[in-house]
């Protein structure tokens, strides 16, 4: 039994590698409802990252639900602006969707005044997919054992403690900026090219702390190479339930999270937006991917198109202030 | 002008370095220099551009002192056809699709060779190459290229 | 002995019939995409990622790892046969390998690469099995100051790559460094030399530059010489290395293996440096440095061994720490996450079958590659005897599609055409592109780490000499610089005396 299952898996691998799209051609287009053919979700980042793996999980579930192929296409570049632009120009029929995130929808419009599309009118929100709380991690040698001690330490040594980030204007940087603001402390921001190297230098002790994604840091937390002080979301994360929030410890009201969500080109019919939105919500909350998303440090959430749009707008307003105040640039 | 110099290759290389160096420094004037302990975005490019200008000047000066080879003939036809065909492939891929842009790329670049004859063997090779690309890259590896682009309603 | 128990478990995993099959499938697919210019393991693994959902985790990772080192292997085949380096590490293989191919020694070059790679892969895999955790801890000691000094060493080594005038070598390195500045500045977020094009915001991909200045420019200049037939390959002399060849490659293979194994551990670009460093080392140690660049077999053996050793040891930070050292490793981590495995230090203890299974499979994969590739050599050599006017349009097609697949962007194809033009101009005026490519790779990392080190050291430049590893690297660079410059200056003096 075991053997034949594996044989089957090998055969499928070889066959799929040989004809990844053969199934797409053979599929019957009998359903009257949306979708009648292949749906493409554009991920504006390179494969392998958090947004990409989350999308691939979702795409697989949507494919099962719809009986139509759901293809993930990576169009990386310019902090997501290239992929977003492609979707902004696509036919607004629901067959080309964008897996946007906190950065592409709320932050890029503030940081990049010369986006190739108008961020206010180019997209219709479909549904939030998952929230990604960050976790405040410190190198084990740092004396601070809890958030309050860290705040005290940072205030006592202004401009001494260093935090690493995935880059200027990225979620790790912005969470740090919000922390400085809330704690009234001054940290040194050390940007890297991506979250991986930023965590690597934290483990090596070259910087003192970081506002890491749970995905990239939980392995080190479990192995004792990093100490988790708090998560940055308003509520605790199901991936790290034992870690308190910053809000419940040192900094009441603190909330800095990243998220991923599905968008369609503006002008997509409302029925299609509602159908996809409802199906995404069912997919992330009902089926087996919920646990997989949680294991990746993401909190699965579905939402209505209107709720998602409200989140995009409120985040943009909130971060515009801190970006202006700290003089953060990325252009 | 090259006849004045004893080493036209060095002269042209020097001019090339000067051009890149000057462009580098000129564009970088908008970037903040910072200080040597806290360097700005313009520091490295300006220093590099300056070095390139220096190397360019040295190369130009040397070309008048030390003799060297001539540049030789330039294969304008091959250059234009190979570079042009590649660029055209990039331009046509999305509107016209893979099949048409492959035909343009292959036929245009092949005509750069003086051995090029359009006979049956070449035609078979052409069809085989297009079919190989369609099956291996698009069907097999799933590279997202349209077979027939938006001009054909794809 | 715990190691033997671990290895036994690894053997059990790797030698299951299905995992052997996945390993074989991975290395064959990897070789195939490596041979096709431009199409790299990153694009392929990304496309196969969804397929691995349905596999057991160890099978998925064994297959993906096979694709990675199979592609490294196939990449050198293309570099030797048609002067198309599709990976940064094969740039130096192309220098002497392609010259050997033109002299009718393609078979001997390919066999040298295969044997060197197999030996290096075996040693590196053993190293991985014995010392992975301590080596990974050592890699973490490398901070910005150490990486900066390492990049300086790489740049000094790159001067040795050039054959002609020192002035041109230096100028081309600087030009490469300047080209590397294109894109968003990591430290400040400023976009430099992007001309407001979002396609340039992340910089220019190395493959685009390499395909342009090596591949396209090579095709154009071959067409120019078509009449004189100098572009054609001379008649093939023997497919296997001679006894004399074997004697000559022993040293380079050993030194390349050591260099590659050590540098491969460093997640911040060490593996890329290893083949350059090995080439420079061989050229310096050789009694006939003038043969380098004209088909020296040592110039193939050293870098190829270093490259493959580095490819194996670059798994160390990924497997023991969950740190991706290159885009392929980032994808492998993505594959682990999809499989529900949390990458990080706990993989070794919680998933021993996976950890040891991958290590053992890497050795098996290398064996597969050797067995697979030695008989293939005859076929490859026949392939380049296809009339050039039929071959080059196909090469062009694969370059164009490969470059497109990097980011699925047609802009990159246009950019490659531009670099083809530039590369042809370089050839005409006698500028060598290899030092420029190395400058292009190292430049951004060097600047990033220099500025980061200064930021962390609060503007104190002494960090580079007070930190011991950094200081040692700088001293080695200085010594290398002296040995590189001294003969050239001495020669100048002699010339001056003669005039």
Please describe what this structure looks like.
The complex is a heterotrimer of chains A (331), B (154) and C (499). Chain A is of the alpha/beta class. In chain A, 44% of the residues lie in helices and 18% in strands. Chain A has 2 domains: 38-131 and 258-326, D-Maltodextrin-Binding Protein, domain 2 (3-Layer(aba) Sandwich); 133-256, 3-Layer(aba) Sandwich (D-Maltodextrin-Binding Protein, domain 2). Chain A contains 12 helices and 10 strands. The radius of gyration of chain A is 21 Å and the shape is globular. By secondary structure, chain B is mainly α. Chain B has 2 domains: 2-65; 76-152, no CATH class. Chain C is an all-alpha fold and 499 residues long. Chain C has one domain (2-498). In chain C, 75% of the residues lie in helices and 1% in strands. Chain C has a two-stranded antiparallel sheet with strand order 1-2. The mean pLDDT of chain C is 85. The interface between B and C is large, with 71 and 69 residues.
Key terms:
heterotrimer; A: 331 residues; alpha/beta; D-Maltodextrin-Binding Protein, domain 2; 2 domains; 10-stranded mixed beta sheet; 12 helices; globular; C: 499 residues; mainly alpha; two-stranded antiparallel ribbon; 21 helices; 1% strand
């Amino acid at each position: 039994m075991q053997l034949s299952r594996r044989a089957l898996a090998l055969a499928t691998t070889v066959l799929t590698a040989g004809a990844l799209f053969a199934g797409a051609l053979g599929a019957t287009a009998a359903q009257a409802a949306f979708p009648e053919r292949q749906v493409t979700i554009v991920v504006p980042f390179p494969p392998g990252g958090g947004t990409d793996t989350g999308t691939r999980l979702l795409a697989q579930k949507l494919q099962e639900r719809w009986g139509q192929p759901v293809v993930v296409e990576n169009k990386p570049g310019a902090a997501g602006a290239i992929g977003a632009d492609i979707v902004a120009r696509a036919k607004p029929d629901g067959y080309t969707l964008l897996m946007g995130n906190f950065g592409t929808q709320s932050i890029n419009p503030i940081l990049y005044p010369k986006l190739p599309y108008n961020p206010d009118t180019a997209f219709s929100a479909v549904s939030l997919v998952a929230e990604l709380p960050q976790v405040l991690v410190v190198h084990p040698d740092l004396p601070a054992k809890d958030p309050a001690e860290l705040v005290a330490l940072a205030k006592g040594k202004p401009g001494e403690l260093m935090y690493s980030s995935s880059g200027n204007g990225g979620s790790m940087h912005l969470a740090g900026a919000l922390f400085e603001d809330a704690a009234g402390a001054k940290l040194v921001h050390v940007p890297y090219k991506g979250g991986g190297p930023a965590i690597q230098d934290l483990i090596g002790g070259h910087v003192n702390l970081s506002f890491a994604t749970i995905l990239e840091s939980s392995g080190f937390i479990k192995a004792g190479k990093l100490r988790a002080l708090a998560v940055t979301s308003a509520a605790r994360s199901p991936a790290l339930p034992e870690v308190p929030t910053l809000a419940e410890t040192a900094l009441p009201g603190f909330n800095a999270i990243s998220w991923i969500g599905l968008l369609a080109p503006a002008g997509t019919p409302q029925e299609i937006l509602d159908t996809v939105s409802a199906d995404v919500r069912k997919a992330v909350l009902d089926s087996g991917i919920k646990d997989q998303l949680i294991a990746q440090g993401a909190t699965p959430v579905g939402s209505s198109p209107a709720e998602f749009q409200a989140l995009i707008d409120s985040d943009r307003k909130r971060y515009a202030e801190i970006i202006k105040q700290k003089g953060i640039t990325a252009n | 002008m090259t006849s004045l110099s004893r080493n036209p290759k060095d002269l042209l290389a020097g001019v090339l370095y000067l051009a890149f160096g000057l462009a580098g420094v000129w564009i970088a004037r908008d970037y903040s220099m910072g200080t040597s302990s806290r360097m700005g975005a313009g520091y490295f490019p300006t220093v590099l551009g300056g070095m390139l200008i220096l190397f360019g000047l040295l190369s130009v000066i040397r070309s008048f002192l030390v003799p060297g080879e001539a540049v030789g003939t330039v294969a304008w036809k091959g250059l234009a056809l190979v570079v042009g065909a590649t660029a055209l492939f990039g331009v046509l891929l999305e509107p016209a699709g893979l099949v048409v842009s492959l035909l343009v790329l292959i036929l245009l670049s092949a005509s750069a060779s003086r051995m090029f004859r359009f006979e049956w063997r070449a035609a078979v090779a052409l069809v085989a190459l297009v079919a190989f690309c369609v099956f291996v890259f698009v069907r097999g590896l799933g590279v997202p290229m349209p077979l027939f682009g938006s001009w054909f309603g794809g | 002995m715990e190691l033997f128990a671990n290895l036994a478990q690894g053997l059990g995993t790797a030698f299951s019939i299905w995992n052997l099959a996945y390993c074989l499938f991975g290395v064959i697919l990897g070789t195939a995409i490596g041979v096709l210019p431009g199409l790299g393991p990153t694009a392929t693994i990304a496309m196969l990622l969804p397929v691995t959902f349905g596999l057991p985790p160890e099978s998925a990772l064994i297959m993906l790892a096979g694709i990675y080192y199979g592609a490294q292997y196939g990449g050198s085949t293309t570099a030797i046969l048609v002067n198309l380096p599709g990976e940064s590490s094969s740039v130096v293989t192309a220098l002497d390998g392609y010259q050997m191919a033109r002299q009718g020694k393609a078979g001997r070059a390919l066999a040298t690469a295969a044997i060197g790679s197999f030996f290096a892969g075996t040693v590196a895999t053993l190293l991985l099995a014995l010392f992975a955790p301590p080596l990974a801890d050592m890699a973490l000691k490398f901070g910005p100051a150490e990486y900066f000094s390492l990049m300086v060493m790489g740049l000094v080594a790159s001067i040795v790559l050039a054959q002609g005038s020192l002035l041109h070598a230096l100028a081309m390195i600087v030009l490469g460094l300047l080209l590397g500045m294109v894109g968003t500045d990591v430290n400040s977020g400023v976009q430099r030399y992007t001309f407001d094009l979002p396609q340039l915001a992340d910089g220019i991909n190395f493959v685009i530059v390499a395909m342009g200045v090596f591949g396209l420019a090579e095709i154009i200049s071959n067409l120019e010489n078509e009449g004189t037939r100098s572009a054609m390959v001379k008649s093939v002399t023997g497919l296997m290395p001679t006894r004399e060849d074997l004697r000559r490659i022993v040293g380079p293979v050993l030194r390349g293996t050591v260099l590659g194994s050590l540098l491969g551990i460093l997640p911040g670009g060490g593996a890329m440096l290893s083949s350059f460093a090995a080439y420079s080392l061989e050229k310096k140690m050789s009694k006939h440095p003038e043969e380098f660049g004209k088909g020296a077999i040592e110039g193939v053996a050293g870098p190829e061994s270093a490259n493959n050793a580095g490819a194996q040891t670059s798994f160390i930070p990924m497997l023991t720490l969950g740190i991706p050292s290159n885009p392929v490793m980032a994808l492998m981590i993505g594959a682990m996450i999809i499989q529900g495995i949390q990458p990080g230090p706990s993989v070794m203890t919680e998933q021993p079958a996976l950890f040891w299974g991958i290590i053992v499979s890497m050795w098996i994969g290398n064996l597969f590659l050797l067995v697979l590739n030695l008989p293939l050599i005859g076929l490859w050599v026949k392939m380049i005897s296809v009339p050039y006017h039929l071959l080059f349009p196909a090469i062009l097609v694969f370059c164009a599609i490969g470059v497109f697949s990097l980011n699925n962007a047609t802009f990159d194809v246009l950019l490659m055409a531009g670099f083809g033009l530039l590369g042809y101009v370089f050839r005409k005026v006698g500028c060598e592109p290899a030092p420029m490519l190395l400058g292009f790779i190292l430049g951004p990392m060097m600047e990033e780490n220099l500025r980061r080190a200064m930021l962390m050291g609060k503007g104190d430049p002494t960090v580079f000499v007070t930190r011991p590893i950094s200081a040692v690297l700088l001293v080695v660079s200085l010594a290398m610089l002296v040995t590189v410059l001294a003969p050239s200056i001495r020669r100048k003096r002699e010339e001056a005396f003669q005039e």
